[in-house]
Amino acid sequence: MNIIITGGAGFIGSHVVDRYLKAGHSVAVIDNLSTGSVKNLNPRAKFYKLDLKNHSQLDKIFKREKPEIVNHHAAQAEVRRSVDDPIFDAQTNIIGGLNILHCCVKYKVKKIIYANTGGALYGAAPSAKLPVREDYPIKPESPYGMSKYTFENYLELYSKLFVLKYTSLRYANIYGPRQNPQGEAGVVAIFIGLMLANQSPKIFGDGRQTRDYLFVADVAQANVLALTRARNQKINLGTAQQTSVNQIYKMIAAEIGFTGKPIYSPAIKGEIRRASQNWDLAKKKLGWSPKVDLATGIKKTLKKKHSRPDLDNPFFALVN
Ligand SMILES: NC(=O)c1ccc[n+]([C@@H]2O[C@H](COP(=O)([O-])OP(=O)(O)OC[C@H]3O[C@@H](n4cnc5c(N)ncnc54)[C@H](O)[C@@H]3O)[C@@H](O)[C@H]2O)c1
Question: Which CATH number fits domain 2-303: 3.40.50.720, 3.40.30.10, 2.40.128.110, 2.40.70.10?
């Protein structure tokens, strides 16, 4: 199949690119490299360096590539930035997303697969509701959660107005090779980066706050399954497990042989105490289950190179 992947030079999107190419699909990546890197890019993918907000150039790419599937991973993905600049967040995640949707309809794309968030949608669910299911009330607590949710609503609307199917995958906390240690959310990448540099990571609060950590290869597999399954569904991808920041710290420190103590700092105001996501629907609709446990995932993250070698890509900056 001809597939366009937005955000394919980013952490998760680049793993999806690899899996689609391995499955024999033809892949074109659209990415403005704002947080992604050419080093993540599979040299067998075509690459268009472009911002989603550039509608006329997007149109040209769709016209040329004639994709059957669009996999949409590009986003303004930082909660803090969304609070500081909600307009920029909405311009990327909503208007940029609508530009993609407009091209999908115009060029008769069959299906769009969307990388949504679970964590930023459900808010602080009480312990009794964890692991949270898809029908748990959605209450975004940041402009990022709101913009990601808004675009999911557009997908549902477009599936009714036009002949365009969708699958929205609501991710838990994803970790693995190529995650940017400079990013705000990737505690595994941040801890690994600091411990390898023999520096003590900071832990905000008492470190007993929990998250649901899902390995990136499991996410890529769900994106493969979604090519042909789970029509017009919103599906959680998580492990249904909770792991505390203190536990993560200990696991990574043990793996690296780091003996320093964490620097405990004041808790971040408004930070959710516990999070985990039920994946029964993913099993039912996609035939998916998480395969890589956290200990194995951390080992794999440490073993794999974080980037690819720089390669001359003949398609680089084809549009700009
Ligand atoms: N990492 C997680 O734990 C997590 C959790 C939930 C949802 N998600 C979603 O998964 C997707 C990928 O996240 P990631 O962690 O790989 O982040 P990432 O920053 O590594 O990837 C995002 C990619 O989008 C590109 N991009 C950003 N704005 C763009 C624009 N205007 N035009 C074109 N390209 C643009 C970036 O350059 C980058 O390559 C995002 O949609 C994010 O909301 C991630």
Answer: 3.40.50.720
